[in-house]
From TrEMBL:
<dbReference type="InterPro" id="IPR045422">
    <property type="entry name" value="DUF6511"/>
</dbReference>
<dbReference type="Pfam" id="PF20121">
    <property type="entry name" value="DUF6511"/>
</dbReference>
<protein>
    <submittedName>
        <fullName>Uncharacterized protein</fullName>
    </submittedName>
</protein>
Length: 114
């Protein structure tokens, strides 16, 4: 299965190649117009490349705040007080990975009602 270069869902026939030059730039596949637009904008800024690493890093950083809010609400913040930022990020990444894996598996099995 070819996955979307932006969100990791199944790609569905949307493609982007910088300057339409597949001899010089990689072709990326996307699941939707929305991801195609996002990917195209990144590639135009980035010499035809889509590097999600920076985006992911920033997204995980922003997710920390949401996790902190929930932990505070549940009164669990004290338990995480001694955790480093890297440990918090591992927790967030584990949730995201598990979620994406399960979503992809269900898509492959066609279990998802559309
Ligand atoms: Zn996508």
């Amino acid at each position: 299965m070819r996955t979307c270069a932006i969100c990791g869902r199944e790609a569905r026939g949307f493609h982007y190649t910088h300057q339409l030059r597949p001899d010089r730039y990689p072709t990326f596949a996307f699941c939707s117009m929305r991801c195609l637009d996002t990917g195209g904008a990144i590639a135009r800024r980035n010499k035809g490349m889509i590097d999600k690493t920076d985006m992911e890093k920033r997204a995980i950083k922003e997710a920390r705040q949401f996790l902190a809010e929930v932990l505070t609400e549940l009164g669990l913040m004290a338990s995480f007080h001694d955790c480093s930022a890297a440990e918090i990020d591992r927790i967030i990444e584990a949730c995201i990975d598990g979620f994406q894996d399960a979503m992809q598996r269900q898509t492959l099995n066609d279990d998802v009602p559309f």
